Task: inverse folding
């Protein structure tokens, strides 16, 4: 049902911090009962039924049996200047980066369907981050928190995204770089 490496990873995090651990799983094999919650992602910007509902049906009984809190999250993939792993693996086209009204309409539809979060994603390691205009339009359209990830490599970009309206930013690849922790401190103003 779940991999021991996910268990081990989450347990190591929980030993080092007292804050909740929220998973961002790619599929049902990346779940662990040791997590506090998970982003229950639906690729709302795509048209592939596997990522709109298929994986969710497979994961739902597992999530319930593990007692993990699911947080319904609209996952909106945005063009980044290159084919992202998400785009390739999900066989879905991203939303056009020059049409913020399309992203805003998708986000509003997701809110109306009961989603609790909107996640605007350019893709892990994306050459370009989600444009500020898309973030502004989505934030103006919805009443739920907006997460933005992909292509955020420095504090200036992170501040631009936060200023545009992001409630949360995701900077996973930045942490892998040798100066990643220093950039995170700069973002936090510490």
Result:
């Amino acid at each position: 049902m779940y991999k021991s490496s996910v268990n081990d990873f989450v347990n190591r995090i929980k030993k080092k911090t007292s804050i909740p651990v929220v998973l961002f799983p790619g599929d049902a094999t990346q779940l662990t009962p040791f997590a506090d919650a998970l982003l229950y992602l639906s690729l709302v910007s795509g048209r592939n039924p596997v990522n709109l509902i298929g994986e969710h049906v497979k994961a739902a009984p597992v999530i319930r049996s593990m007692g993990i809190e699911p947080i319904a999250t609209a996952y909106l993939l945005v063009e980044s200047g290159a084919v992202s792993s998400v785009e390739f693996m999900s066989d879905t086209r991203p939303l056009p980066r020059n049409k913020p009204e399309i992203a805003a309409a998708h986000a509003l539809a997701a809110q109306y369907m009961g989603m609790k979060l909107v996640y605007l994603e350019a893709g892990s390691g994306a050459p370009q981050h989600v444009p500020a205009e898309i973030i502004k339009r989505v934030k103006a359209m919805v009443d739920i928190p907006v997460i933005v990830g992909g292509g955020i490599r420095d504090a200036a970009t992170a501040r631009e995204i936060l200023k545009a309206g992001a409630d949360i930013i995701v900077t996973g690849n930045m942490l892998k770089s040798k100066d990643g922790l220093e950039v995170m401190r700069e973002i936090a103003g510490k």
